[in-house]
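Blinded run. Sample ID left blank on purpose so nobody reads anything into the name before looking at the predicted structure. Input follows.
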Amino acid sequence: MVSSPNVAFNEGGSSASISKESGSANFNLNSFDLTAAWNDGLSVLVQGFNGSSIVDQTNLNPSATAATLYSPNFDNLTSVTFTSSGGTHHSSYPGGVGIQFAMDNLTISPVPEPASIGLIGICGGLLTLRRFRERPAR
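Blinded prediction complete.
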């Protein structure tokens, strides 16, 4: 755990995923801390989806002894899947085995709706036009 009070993990080494709620805006996957729970050399495939299409992916190799901050910066997603595999048991960890990982400080952000972006652009243009109109003539 990097910061309390919460941490997520993939129980039993199963794939883990996050997804948007129906009717909500798509999201960007900004960053997260990841630690291999038992295995050195663990591989975690991170896939970002928009609907059923993979829009981005990366393969990560988190440490079994310390959290690593990853910033994939995947944009405009409806879901993300984390799938772990491989590695060898870390010798200092008696009693536990497996391809589990722990995740902390997950940071996502909503994708602005196109109407909002357009409205911001229009307002900026109007303010600029007004500023030029208010300048005194020379």
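Unblinding after everyone has recorded impressions. The helical segments are 114-134.
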